[in-house]
Amino acid sequence: MDYKDYIEHYRRDAETYDYQPARDTHAGQIERRRAEFIRHVLKKKYLHTGSLILDIGSGGGRQLVEFSRAGACPIGLDLALLNLRKIKERLVEDTAKGCRLVAGDAYAIPFRNASLDVIIFSEVLEHLGKPADAIAEAVRVLKPAGVIVISVPYREKIIQHLCIHCNCLTPANAHLHSFDEQAIRFLLAGLPVAVEKEMFFHSKAMNLLNLPYRLRHFPYGIWRFLDRLFNLTFRRPHYYAILLRKNV
Description:
Blueprint: H1 3-16, H2 26-43, E1 52-56, H3 62-69, E2 73-78, H4 81-93, E3 100-103, E4 116-122, H5 131-141, E5 142-153, E6 160-162, E7 169-171, H6 181-187, E8 193-203, H7 204-208, H8 211-214, H9 220-234, E9 237-246
Parallel strand pairs: 1-2, 1-4, 2-3, 4-5
Antiparallel strand pairs: 5-9, 6-7, 8-9
């Protein structure tokens, strides 16, 4: 697909699709735990007062609220102005302070070289035609010793549907790529980054049993313990995450 067409498609998608599912649903709880997972990956070392965190493809913006409460300076980057307006409304509702919203795309991040502490790609790379270019651009704006968190669906089987508008096959959920550890590392070839940690989360077995929703009142630690246990037993994670550090 032509890149200009991709941008226009994404903006039109934002008019019909809400990227923030209701909290009191199965999908909403999956989104909640996924956001909590990212924060726990960061919080011990990297989520501190004043840290500049760029969330690329900010979705519903809930992650920005939590980073703000932790004292960081989160920045939401999104192509669709409508998405940014929705996020702004939610930030006001949650009285989140210190958040910034920027219209832009992952291939041309509107920040100076080596200016950000943390960059997040949470379920974004699978939507991009050129994910390697987006990661390279993120490395450009990342400070030395800064970190990038990437999470993607793990070994997803991409289903094609026939589009009623153009009569062409189009991938479900707008996912263009299926990733595993080797595929992500291939995208990193030649970049000045080191792998700090690799993780798997959201057991498919737990999802089948509707446990994300049933465990909605339990703290993150209990959910994560059970999630690890299920993934060790059945080895069917829904997501793969990797933490990268930029070389000094």
